[in-house]
Amino acid sequence: MREIDAYIAAAPPVARERLEVVRAVLRRRIPTGIESFRYGMPAVMIDARHGLHYAAWAKHLALYPVYRGDESYETLVGPYRAKTDAVHFPHAQPLPLDVVEAIAAALAARAPRAAGTAG
Questions:
Q1: I want to staple 104 with a disulfide (CB 3.0 to 4.6 A). Which of 5, 17, 29, 99 is the partner?
Q2: In this predicted model, what pLDDT tens digit does every residue of 40-85 receive, in sequence order?
């Protein structure tokens, strides 16, 4: 998507690499997701209502919405929650790939199964 490519290219260098990593994780973990550009930020949508947006801000990278999960999920994700259903990863700290992977996996689990797919 040109809009997403342009958004990432325009980001400051500290955020650009993080955006590219998050995009790659989402593409890999949510292969049926559709990349889109909504509300001025990149997103991966699994249907018309459910998806994950990601954005670079001056001091952090954010993911929205990050739904609540079980206790083990919240133990992993909870330290990064900033507001209701949002997580922030400060640029001054390493990007926690395990957390990004867990968030992407949780979203992928919400994806509707393809018609005729055994599960």
A1: 29
A2: 999 999 988 889 999 999 999 999 999 899 999 999 999 999 977 8
Distance CA 36, CA 92 (A): 28
Count of alpha carbons within 13 angstroms of residue 44, beta-carbon side: 23
On whether residue 115 sits in a domain, the answer given is no
Gyration radius from the chain CA atoms: 14
| Token pair 């209701």: residue | 84
- Which tokens in the block code for residue 35? 């990349």
Question: CA 69, CA 85: separation in Å to the nearest integer?
Answer: 11
State the CATH number of the domain containing residue 16. Answer: 3.90.1150.200
pTM of the model: 0.87
- Is residue 118, in this structure, part of any structural domain at all? no
Q: Which residues contact 21 (CB under 8 A, 6 or more apart)?
A: 95, 97, 100
Q: How many domains does the chain have?
A: 1
**Cβ atoms of residues 11 and 42 within 8 Å:** no
Identify the CA nearest to 29 among candidates 108, 114, 116, 119: 108
